[in-house]
Amino acid sequence: MSENKDHQGPASGNSVEGVKFVYDFTEGNKDLKDLLGGKGANLAEMTNLGLPVPPGFTITTEACKVYLESGEAPAALRDEVSAHLEALEQRMGKKLGQADDPLLVSVRSGAKFSMPGMMDTVLNIGLSDKSVKGLAQQAGDERFAWDSYRRLIQMFGKTVLGVDGDLFEDALDKAKEAKKVTVDTDLEAADLKKLVTTFKKIVKKETGRDFPQDPREQMDLAIRAVFDSWNGDRAKLYRRQERIPHDLGTAVNVCSMVFGNLGPDSGTGVAFTRDPASGHQGVYGDYLQNAQGEDVVAGIRNTVPLAELEKIDKKSYDELMSIMETLENHYKDLCDIEFTIERGKLWMLQTRVGKRTAAAAFRIATQLVDQGLIDESEALQRVTGAQLAQLMFPRFDENAKVEQVARGIAASPGAAVGKAVFDSYTAVKWSRSGEKVILVRRETNPDDLDGMIAAEGILTSRGGKTSHAAVVARGMGKTCVCGAEELEVDTKRRRMTVPGGHIVEEGDLISIDGSNGKVYLGEVPVVPSPVVEYFEGRMHPGADDADELVEAVHRMMAFADRKRRLRVRANADNAEDALRARRFGAQGIGLCRTEHMFLGDRRELVERLILADTEEEREESLKALLPLQKKDFVELFEAMDGLPVTIRLLDPPLHEFLPDITELSVRVALAESRQEPHENDLRLLQAVHRLHEQNPMLGLRGVRLGLVIPGLFTMQVRAIAEAAAERKNAKGDPRAEIMIPLVGTVQELEIVREEADKVIAEVEAATGTQLKLAIGTMIELPRAALTAGQIAEAAEFFSFGTNDLTQTVWGFSRDDVEASFFTAYLEKGIFGVSPFETIDKDGVGSLVKSAAEAGRRTRPDLKLGVCGEHGGDPESVHFFHEVGLDYVSCSPFRIPVARLEAGRAATQAEGSDHR
After folding, report:
1. What sign for the dihedral angle of Cα 825, 828, 833, 835?
2. Catalytic residue set
3. pLDDT for residue 4
4. Which of 449, 453, 657, 860 has the fewest C-beta atoms under 10 angstroms from its C-beta?
């Protein structure tokens, strides 16, 4: 924004009737964060508590929004700032920047949500060539005055005038070199005077103007700079990362200066009421003598532990400890505090609810319940599913020496180390020999499932968070890094080339971090997660540090399970995954993908079924598949006895069960050139050409496949029914639900349902067992959602397949778009987060909501669930609670996350109702 030549400050021609834009610290409170920002609201709260806060005032976020929208601050702002500045001057008994005894102020940003270091701050505003002498006389310390002045020019030049900060740092370093000292505190007044002159020359050269000597101009320009910093690159990047809305704006806090750089009896520090890393109570923080606040965070000088303050200044230390206890009891949470001591007088400059690690969050929440400061419902709001996920996955030792060679998409968290292998056969073979392997592929497909199961982790050079590799890996709790495009994977030569030309041969050790997408050469030591051992039943709450964390997680999960309304099921395709899911707290299976049962040895049977020319060939294939399917379902019903098991009938894109058309063409061509027999391959190639699809995901799959290939779905229904009857006759309690995939119209469902009901009746008659098999459908097409009222006439339940629903609503191919343009969309702010990661409430979410309402108008007892990837996403779980679904289903390792978030959603709803 251009400089205001008339020094009219933040005011301009924009008028907003009846809006108050400036609040004194005595006027606000901690509940006004939307208006005053977090810093301003908390300064007001501490003022109300009678704590020693330097007087000041806050310019609201509303003023910032007007400025950002129009390029001009509201017309009333200048007069309001003037009135509050005059009141501050009267209170302090001095005027801003006056020559003999100047009032100095700081101008600090303060958004609703903490964005540490992302926006701008300027200290010591009001100093000039004249007032610096008055400050020196008033303080009785010439060095302090000139040190404060050089700080102002340095911060103002960089923050407000846009001068390269390195120019000032270089000049400071040269001054120390000339003096032969290493720290700036060893520079004397004369040195600092020279440095001020140098700094002013830098400003003149870089900006074409002199450093402003008018103190009000300094303040007004600093206020504008803080407003502008809301849209700075680093602030926007931080907001995207933390999912902070871009339209909130920042408040500006104008606070009278207190000085920590007045000598050894002064200083500045930061403190925490508990350890933000562990959650343990104690004295945590840092202190720096003879310094201003920026020195602590900049790391220019070495701080001392906060406990040392007791020896340096016991009076201030004791007062600080008392204030910290007051603040923690008042905020009922870990508090992060900034303070300054000016010649033995303690001043509080900021407090906020402090950021913390995932482990600390769980410990602190339970500690505060035990102390009676919060109840269980509030404790649930202090932890998140994302934090729980961090605690569940193994991680690399942060202290290890590593050689990072690439970075991809963090697709499935965890830390995995193993020998690089480039095909599933080798992965299985080496794994059976006791080797730990990482399966490296350009991208995976269903044929790679055995290798993915055998591997410690999966690394691909293509694909995104919802690619085959990513989805399957998350389902298995397997570490996965996708889309590492820097890697050149050569599966034929069994090696990959990393940036710099280094070759990783098959058998070389590599390490991948699914939490951040990093790829390393060699072995990085792994630290196991005690939380997973707890969920697996291998660790029980105890007394040592790890068990203390497990105890906290255990208690929070118990709170969540008591509170939640949403049930949590698992996406599981075999008994092993089902049993793991049950240990993790699953209340059934919400999605069993039967196509995963047809891989490996069975694939040839399915291929023969699809390509069958005669009814006899088709019946022969179905007859061979039936007992295999029945065995699958018997094992599932045994693992999930007494709990619902939703089985989705076959839903693969057709090409996944057909030979690769290129490989088959080459085989036929070679056979012809060698004059070798190839009639079977030629017949196969002709059939594959006949069935080939340009877009298999929108082709012959799901219910369409069941309608086109007679007997396919009825074979699966018969296997389910016979397995249920066998389990029931063995005194078990099978609760099977049959789900028809990719339905777009009620007529499709009616035809399949009629055939299924007939088969179930036949099995009941043959076994003498009455079966209650619910039949429903997956809502994964926009048309299904839009006609949900009709479809509910033939469905006893809906399960929303939000992966495909997102794909079809947006018109995205999820295997392609994340790697091609999602990064650009995220950077440009089109997405706050990928719609495949968190449900798009406005688009996909509105279809889910309307379909749920329409379905229940037709069938009030319609059971509603979701089985897409969003079922384990924390934010999405809250949405599903709000729209009234009965359950979410997710991968086994996401079940604890979904349980926790379902409890949090219920307590949030309770809080809203009470308000």
Report:
1. negative
2. 468, 867
3. 40
4. 860
